[in-house]
Amino acid sequence: MIRIMKYDETDVSDIFIRGTSTDSVRETVKQIIENVKQNGDKALREYTLKFDKADIENFEVSPEEIDEAFAAVPDKFIKVLKRARDNITDFHKRQVRNSFIISENKGIVLGQKVIPVDRAGLYVPGGTAAYPSTVLMDSIPAKTAGVKEVVMVTPPGADGKVNPCILAAAKVAGVDKIFKVGGAQAIAALAYGTETIPKADKIVGPGNAFVAEAKKQVYGEVSIDMIAGPSEILIVADGKSNPEYVACDLLSQAEHDKMASAVLVTDSYELAEKVRDEIEKQLPLLEREEIARASIDNNGKIIVADSLEAVIDIANRIAPEHLELCVDEPFDYLDSIRHAGSVFMGRYCPEALGDYMAGPNHTLPTSGTARFSSPLSVDDFVKKTQYSYFTKEALSDLAYDVEYFAKQEGLTAHSRSAVIRLKDDKNE
Q1: Beta strand 3-6 with 100-102: parallel, antiparallel or unpaired?
Q2: Catalytic residue IDs
Q3: The pTM is what?
């Protein structure tokens, strides 16, 4: 049963599980990466047989397999996928940054080019659940950014096939290539390339502890989006909130994973008790009751504070992945929210809207990293190159300041390079 506790008895810095790797996970992942780096597809086949029980000869999903999967899923699901794609695309189009050029001063041109990476690698989890929504959320920002090639890796089933809903989502989103491989070995393949799987410039997407650790270890060889920990939700609710709604929203995260965290922070002890009771009523209704029960019993919490202002302060200190503001006038509090991955405002905006259909991205910073990082966006798939152009006349205006500045740092060549181009002027 979920625990109710008073704020003054609680250390909120440790409310959510912080994603950490054990020595065993780190060492296992290190060995997997080295094996894939050295042996390529051969290592991938060994790991896929060992972990996924699938004997894969050709890792790339064929166009025929994609078409077969597309035909196998209900037409209604295709329509929902397309509607979600359109909403996600519309939101992410607003994030596109333009290159700029400055030429206001005579003889000087300054600028910045915004350039998409050449190839993005998407990791889409398998295992206890398949998430076609992740396909859309990870691929659409890349496509919107102008990435030339988007490749996806995802674990196969024991039959050697990929979940048809995953493949249908990939087709709707315009993913260029799909490979049947998962786990740390898939991250290694994207980082270093194999005979079949091309090396990516950026790897994005959530996964289990081994996937997260692999992303951490290959960072520097490639770029990554973030190190994602277990899913988490924090609900800010006042005493007028419907306990049935709040309980359901807490369970929507608890059913993800036994390690997921669902937390309610409220100024009403009465609401806290009603939500606790409602969770117990709703748990038996869930298909993933065992997972949700473990999450609620081990990680679920209800924190009661003296005021709504204190509740907001707690939310900022925790910096949750998902934050629901279940209050009458949520926009009155929006400016006070400084640290959260994504905010769901009002009594009729459940977090599940953001998972699937609303448009903002659902790949979000976890484990308190919302204090300094952001949701997945178009920015994750571009890089910037800056440039400068000076005529001799324009250089002469700054050269002696550069010379002096460089001397203060003891960099003689820097100093000389600024003025050596003006020596003809001195001779004159």
Answers
A1: unpaired
A2: 321-322
A3: 0.93
